[in-house]
Design goal:
This protein is an alpha/beta fold. The protein contains 12 helices and 21 strands.
Length: 415
């Protein structure tokens, strides 16, 4: 008889975990508190980005964060508040903003993103999925000499790591993007990156899981976890009580709330990101990041997505018009021919990304609970790391040798 697994969370991490566990012969149930048609897994930039190997917690970020704290339109905004979980996270984040954390993180992030990128290709081929997926690289557009120098240094590190990365001049930039006017001083280019249209993958994956016997329960909220002798005995929701051999905690920004019930100190904050979709022709053909503004531009299937900002302000779905306007203004500043309409701005939405203090995800089992596997804390990289995390979760539960080293992702790590 196959073992039962309950996955708490139906975002990209939860669905990919369900996919690989189903493949391994487990009886899988996914429980999610939402309709599973919105949130970070649906509104992200769609990047599969080995180029993003520098963690959020890096030298200088905390200083910038403090500077931007009172600017609601800034790329990285932390809302000041007297909350013990927030204050503990801020202290740990500040402690992690050093070169040692960056050096530790680079190989770990590179490995998991490269694995994930290959697994997207593999799933698409094996399951005959049709979701949009292209490998056209990523352009980092810079408007100041200071930012260009910083990005060139990162590209040089990427080259040392074996990634396809280089500085490009304005003539080469025009060759890459011949049909649109770009206002930039210079750029770097990562040929190693891919991009996709998130909702297409999520829709196909949900359909595949249901057709292969996975139970997906929407609008069901997990309220409590009963633990006896370091083992979860039951999962209690607003509807019922569920039992399983193994539990996967992949509830994104809500994961730390449930982990507290198990006595696990999972430092996590919700990082809100916004997106604007434009269905008019923009002539953007390759993904780009507007480096100074920290805004992502993605040509998706039938529309262009503009996404950005990191807003640490607790769990809430409020749309801050100031931040939406900042994204729209940045787009026009770099692409003078693109004007985002008021209607498009009014249709903007957001998603909450779970952010750990050191910028690395939590993937693995905590010593405090034998049958719980944690998979959360991916910050802006959930989409880039989604398939690999799912595969790693299945390997952890199967007690198999992991495809890559996961030591840096241990849930019990100290900050």
């Amino acid at each position: 008889m196959s073992k039962k697994v309950i996955i708490i969370g139906g975002g990209i991490i939860g669905l990919c975990s369900a996919y690989y566990l189903n493949k391994a012969g487990f009886e899988v149930t996914v429980v999610d508190q939402s309709n599973m048609d919105s949130g970070a897994s649906y509104v992200n930039a769609g990047y599969l980005s080995p180029s993003h190997f520098i963690p959020l917690a890096s030298p200088g970020v905390m200083k910038k964060g403090l500077k931007w704290m009172f600017d609601a339109s800034s790329p990285f905004y932390m809302k000041p508040r007297l909350n013990s979980d927030f204050l503990k996270w801020v202290l740990a984040f500040n402690k992690s903003c050093n070169i040692k954390n960056v050096e530790k993180s680079i190989p770990a992030i590179k490995q998991i993103t490269l694995l994930s990128q290959s697994l997207y290709d593999e799933i698409k081929q094996d399951e005959h999925f049709t979701f949009h997926l292209e490998k056209k690289g990523l352009i980092m557009l810079c408007q100041t000499e200071k930012m260009l120098q910083e990005e060139v240094k990162i590209a040089e590190v990427a080259q040392l790591e074996g990634l396809d990365a280089r500085e490009i001049n304005l003539s080469e930039l025009k060759e890459l993007e011949p049909h649109i006017n770009i206002n930039a001083l210079g750029a770097t280019y990562y040929g190693c990156d891919s991009h996709s249209t998130p909702h297409e993958f999520m829709s196909e994956m949900k359909s595949w899981l249901i057709s292969h016997g996975v139970t997906i329960s929407q609008n069901e909220r997990v309220e409590d976890l009963e633990i006896i002798n370091t083992k979860i005995q039951s999962v209690k929701t607003n509807r019922r009580e569920l039992k399983a051999d193994e539990i996967v905690l992949a509830a994104g920004s809500w994961s730390h709330i449930l982990s507290k019930k198990l006595g696990i100190n999972l430092l996590l904050q919700a990082g809100k990101g916004y997106r604007i979709n434009s269905f008019k022709s923009t002539h953007v053909s390759r993904p780009a990041i507007l480096a100074e503004a920290k805004v992502a531009v993605t040509p998706m299937n039938g529309f262009t997505r503009f996404a950005g900002t990191m807003e640490i302000a607790g769990i809430n779905g409020k749309i801050n018009a100031v931040r939406v306007e900042a994204i729209a203004n940045a787009v026009t500043k770099y692409y003078p021919d693109i004007q985002i309409s008021n209607e498009e701005k009014c249709e903007a939405t957001s998603g909450l990304r779970p952010v750990s203090p050191d910028g690395l995800p939590y993937i693995g089992k905590s010593s405090k609970c034998k049958n719980l596997t944690i998979a959360t804390g991916h910050a802006m990289m959930g989409w880039s790391m989604g398939t690999a995390t799912g595969k790693l979760v299945s390997e952890i539960i199967l007690d198999k040798k992991a495809s890559i080293s996961i030591e840096a992702f241990h849930p019990d790590r100290k900050f």
